Write the structure tokens for this entry.
Amino acid sequence: MGVLANKGEKVKVRVRVNGVWYERYVSPRMLLVDFLRDELGLTGTKVGCDTTTCGACTVIMNGRSVKSCTVLAVQANGADILTIEGLAQDSKLHPIQQAFMDNFALQCGYCTPGMIMQTYFLLKENPNPTEEEIRDGLHGNICRCTGYQNIINAVKDAAGRMRS
Amino acid sequence: MLKVYLFIQYKYYKHVYPPDFAYYIPNSIYEAVDFLGRYDNARPLAGGQSLLPMLKLRLLNVDYIVDLNPLKELDYVSLNKDYMEIGALTRYYEVLKSSIVNEKLPLLSMVIRKVGDMQVRNMGTIAGSLANADPASDTCAVTLVFDADIVTTSSSGNRVIKARDFFKGPFTTALAKDEIVTAIRYPILEGYKFNFVKVVRRAGDYPLVSVAVAVKLKDGVIEDLRLGYAGVSQTPYRPFEVEKSFIGKSLKDSIEDIVSKVVEGVNPPSDTRGSSSYRKEVMRNVTRKALREVMG
């Protein structure tokens, strides 16, 4: 028989986030983004629109970018998750982070974690994207400071750094 | 419901959780449909890219969520003699990655490449879009162009529903309470030309109007014509009678006639994206553009 958790009951969720396994008991309605922020304290992932539009909450789940405001924490049970906190290695920024910095690809910075995680997925899928492919790949991420031009420059730059 | 949905979506939304629900993880398809049959107000969850926003916006209230995601046997793409079968849990991402889909179903690839955005396509499924039956869904419209066989499973067994019999109204399908979509079979259309034209007000939004076209020509004469529209009616829309009436005619000489006839059978909704008459105008324009481009 399958497993039923009634209303008000909590469900065990085990996830590997940035290489570390975590286990928590959560309500089935808890969203992945709130699990990351409130349960694990990883507040690098942002909540923007909360309606699957803006992409600020983008994280990598089992190798693919997802909008964590539209994934239940229970759906991530057993998953491998990478957030913005997991990119830098040994206090050295990831090439995508460095490229965003060097190209002034952020103003207020709120959309940046999502932009960077989506770029991470995009470049994993397509290490040498054209400008059009970059624009299509980032179309689910909204920047309200209107820094798109620099963001696209940063993605191009990051792609070059990661290939070399 | 559609109007309410569109209206609430951006106007009265505040940060909320989905309502409290009970959560069921089935071990098999049978357990899933059995559960759906026995419990009231239960909904299956696939990619969740429509269901979760609708729950958060309180457009929908459910008591039970049946999580289909552990049913890995529903995640596949397989090529058969004259159709392609896509399992219900195959994500848009995987469908787009599949080289046989790109080769054999170019129209499907063309349309679903524009569904939502990359993150949404990493989670969302075709079957989920069909079961949700949003009248503005491009996936539903293109499935209707193929008139695909929608394979379903319920406690009483499997059955096949033709796409043209599947959509009953906005967010309403022919599925019974204890029935889920388990696969979709897209016929392989050989010798057709395809096109897809979509008008969207903002990146990532639902289309105002979109049209998917499949046309078979012999020396410029129409042998088969299929037009599938999203956003113009209570369900995805195909003007079957209009399509039929142009068989045997030259496409080049018929474009303007087709354009004026396709809008006759619909009364598009008026909402925040556009009025009914504006939608009709856009419908004419996308049809003209799509058919002209097919002509090359």
Summary: The longest helix of chain B spans residues 276-295. Residues 2-66 of chain B form a domain with the Uridine Diphospho-n-acetylenolpyruvylglucosamine Reductase; domain 2 fold (CATH 3.30.43.10).
